[in-house]
Fold these 4 entries.
Entry 1:
Amino acid sequence: MAMSGWSVAVLAAASALWLASGVERERPVLSPEASDAIAHLEANVAAHPESAPALRDLSQAYLEVRAPGLAISLIQHAPASVRSDPWVDHAYARALLDQGRAEEALTVERRVLDRCASDPAVGATPCDTWLIASATRRTDILQQLVHLGVEDAQAHPEASLIAYQNATREARLAVVE
């Protein structure tokens, strides 16, 4: 009899918790405005899965609407020929940083710089000046973040600011005649 009393009490408590919890409705991953804008890019990637520019544009759009997980998944499931593009890797590094994975982002960003430095005759995609400058700057900032032990830049804004300032300090020389 004592055991059935406990069973009834546990069942009553579980029922009360269940009734008090309410209904959880589904929510869209992206806002309706963002979803409409991204639908065209998603259709483009679906139609041209081997297109690195299409994948880069879609992953960049995901990053702009603060959905780095979608960008990471998109890039990780892309064909190897597309993933090897330095522009795609650059977007992948930003998505990793936005996800709070600074050390992995640093590794990927260094890979971008290595690909840009390699000989184009070997088959590497040529990099323009903007990509090299952006990757170099981000690598410097990521190195400072990792040096300070910051894995998630958004969770530690003060340390992230210090890392940014350390990485972007400039010394100027003035020549006086």
Note: The mean pLDDT is 86.
Entry 2:
Amino acid sequence: MLIPRVHAYYNTREILATIKYRGKGDIQTLEQSFAQYFKHKYGILFPYSRRAVIATFDILGIYNKEIIMPAYTCVDVSHAVVKSGNIPIFVDSAPGEFNCRWDDFAGKINASTGALIGTHLFGTVMKDTCSKESLEKLKNIPILHDRTLAIGTPFTENNNVLKGLCSYYGLSLSKQFCMVKGGIVITDDEKLYKELISYRNKNIEKGNYGFQVNRYLFFLSHYLLFNPLTYDGLNYLAKYVKTVEKQIKYYDPNKITLPDDVNIMPSDWQVRVGIVQLEKLNDMNKLRKIVYNRYVEGLKELKGIGFYRNKPEEQSSHFILFSEKRDEIVKVAQKEGVDIGLHFDYIIPDLPSYESYRTDEPFNNSRKLAATVCNLPFWPGLSKRNQDKIIKVIIKIDDSISKKGVN
């Protein structure tokens, strides 16, 4: 039995939400509640967060401009940049951190710069500091934030410049908050909010009956297959069925693409699922902290494998391990029944599809993260029995590394 690396925390509340009609206004309820949760004024739901990024660029008139962004982040973000008609300019991660530094962003600004995208990974946030010289450069450039993997970690927003124009949250199956598919942009800028609503009304359509059925089947398949009892079968199918493989590996390194349904709004029942998930978010974060603390205690004596230790205020989206022998660890763990995730096992400039955007910059820190980082199964509802199994497997592998290496 293989313990899956991701699993949405659904129960009967989500199932009932898919079949219960709650009347009009559900989208507004989700948007307003989501914005209020993160202490912002406005929220706007889109089919995907990457579609909201493209919409923002369109509204701001940013086209054929350089967009400064991390080299080590989700490729979906850079896909949105390219598909919006703009040019990604990549920045290395800061030494010893998952994220970039604002000073490094500022160093890339020139007359061709259209915007910056700051990314906050694995529950950590970009430090709210930079030099005065950098701040002068940054204050004239739109700053967008990708905060999908930092739900629950507070942001220090004393600096109005670094606070930025808006923030994006992806709400797909591998995220802390999941409504199957979808994305929300939140902002305090009333003008941007109204323009995003108008843009969505003109460019985003409602799915037909076939779309609704397919999306619901997708929801049920995840609910049924991404669990320890059936996950072995899902991985077996992924070897032979391309549509199944796409659910496990979310990108093609050779293509810059957007989903076929990128212009179709989430279904009404998805919105209701999203409302339920938001109501449960604090409890889900508490459950993640319980799993986190159990891992920390159980793995504190590791010798050959490292792991990221949270700061007190941080809410992890993943439990991160580090090892130079990461790939071997993943293989051995899977044989032992633990599916370890490789959330970002690449840097974007190295992907074949981004060959034309490469420079001579080495991206040493980002490349090290891509080669050494992996993540344990880490989701609310992960049983103590499976937590104990995961800890034992990692300790066993660590002992092997310390003595003679992984076989």
Note: Confidence is low (pLDDT under 50) at residues 236-245.
Entry 3:
Amino acid sequence: MKGQRYVTGFNVRSPKTYFTADVEMDADTALPLANAKLYLYGTQPPEALLVLDRDGGVAISGDSLQHWHQTDAYFSFVGGVMMKLMGFIRPFNVGPGWLKQAKPSADALRGVLGLRFEHLLPAHGDVIQGGACERYRVSIERAAAR
């Protein structure tokens, strides 16, 4: 996303970045995939869903929509316990770290429910095949009401 910075740790204001994208996207960017669109949350740091109009709709998320329904072999015992306590290990979850840092509006969150996607490829967690948008309704409404 245009304006996104890739920094080590959680200090998004850090002057040190470890990665610079070759192409930055925003609402006016011509996407390289047919029948694709970006849904922008209007947050800072910027975040969007990429939605592909195929197979009932396929969304690809970054930090906003997560599906870590359980820890896996890449979590240490302590790490898994801490991630559960912090609210990250939940099915069909709106990313708690992203919510805290990006502070999306209730309208931007609820706008996801108006998108057409049956499947989700989240950056954090497992793929959801079938009914993805509807499965996020409860967590999106909870996050929007905060």
Note: Residues 36-144 form one domain.
Entry 4:
Amino acid sequence: MVTADDSVSASLRSDGLAGAFELPFAKLHGAGNGYVVLDGRDLNADWQSIAPRITDPNFGVGSDGLAVVESSDAAAVRMRIFNSDGSEAEMSGNGIRLFAKFVLDRGLASLDEGSLLVETGGGLRRVFPMPATPTTGPMTAASVAMDEPRFELAALPADPRLAGGADRLIDFELEVAGQPVVFTALSLGNPHAVIRIDHDPADYPLARIAPEIQAHPLFPQRINVEVVQVLGRDRLRARVYERGEGETLASGTGATACAVTARFHQQTDAAVAVELPGGVLHVEWPGPGESAWLNGPAVEVFEGIWREPAGGSSREHE
């Protein structure tokens, strides 16, 4: 096991980052959705530049994204999420579970009444780890309070001039790649467009359709795209195409968006299992006005040291 001692931590948190330096990290995954997680508290680093290099599957660690621990005045800790292209995301349902495991297993923050309060770009979120306390062993899974889904245009955001007078994009039809595509859009701290189909998502041309939706001027900040099939009142099958990443084996917010959309359209009950290429995530949403809950695994794969070359960081505070 590779860890940073106090002298390394002190050097990482100095202002002299013009030369090469080292970043202790851990690689984790939730249902195959992988993240590199590291402690970036007080470290003046250009994470948008580092993220594509450290997540690269050939020249880096290999992952769907980078999660960075930062200090917070509003919560026990702050999570910043960067996609593999360097863009920053507001929230990640899988990422926050993996982030919480990294933080709690290493004693970087403490639980408050059985939960970890995390500041994210999409607002404050509570993570309820399993086992319930660090003294009963390393965290293996967690439930996350995902907050109340929002459908209004401003929450996405979506350009109202292109929404055809609609105040929400419910079964909204858009001409994409030469064909009409119908989706429901919602925000879970980050935006999603969910396409409901009646056949196996494996046969859907997601790699062709999703980039066209993401790049459409209707969504000035782009949008995550999901395709979902209802298998029963308690089960869904889905695929996810994320902003700044492409298709991933799983997505916590993507699975939640699929469950909320199916429930909104009265196709499922409150609690559903969502089958994704990388595994199964569980979502519960009672209905409008209520928060959604996400439950899934958190697995640490390995630890290591990322050696950042000279000139790879910034002296400027973000």
Note: Residues 93-105 form the longest helix (13 residues).
